[in-house]
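Here is one chain, start to finish.
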Amino acid sequence: MPVADASRPPKSQKTYTAVDTPHITSVAFKYTLPTFGRAESGWKKAVFGGWTTDGILRYSSGTLIGVPGAQNGLTSVTFANGNFSNRVTNQPVFLHSLNKHDFNPRTTFVLNSAAWSDPAVGQYGTSKPRYSDFRNARYPNEQLGIGKVFPLKEGLTFDVRADFFNVFNRWAYPSLNGTSNALQPAQFGSNGSITNGYGYIGDSINSAASNYPPRSGQIVARIQF
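Its structure:
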C-alpha cells in the first residue's frame, strides 16, 4: 500500500493487507452411518451397510473494503495515490449490514457517506487505507457428500457417491459499487434503481449468483479394479 504522507511516523501508516481474514473456521469430517443392527449379514449388509457421509464446512470473515480516496486534488500534484478520506468519529460506516438481507439492494445505500470527510485543500488525510471493522459480508461455504463402496469380488469394487455444493442454498449480495469516492452524488435511474453514489448495489444484484452459485449436486459411479 503506498504511503501518501512520508513525514508522518511509520506507525501511523500501519494498516491491514487486502487479504486480511481474522476468523476462519474449517471443519472436515467423514462418518460411517450406523445400521442400528438391521444390516448385520446377507443382502441387507451388502446394500445398507458401509455407507459413509462426509463434508467440508468453512466459515470466514468478509474481505476488507478500502477506505474512500480523498477528493481534494492533492494526488494530482504530488503523484502519490494513497491519500484517503478522514474517518468521522461516532459515525457508523454501514447504514445496513451486508450479513442481513433486510433491505432493497436496488434502492438502498449500504455505506454511510457521512462517515468520511474530505481533507482540507493541500492536506493529507488521516485515515488508514483499511479498517478491520469495514468489511464485506462474511462467507460460509458448505459441501456434503454420501457414498458407499460395494465389493463385487476380489480386486473389483463398485463405488457410488453423491456430492452437494452450497447445500443450504446460501446467497450473498454482489460487490458494492462506488466505494472509492464518498462524495459522489446520489443518482437514480428511471426504474428507481441507484445508478451512482457511495456504496450501493443497484442493478448488479442480477449477478449475485456469481458470489454463491445455487445449490448443486453430482452423482459419481465408478468401477475400480
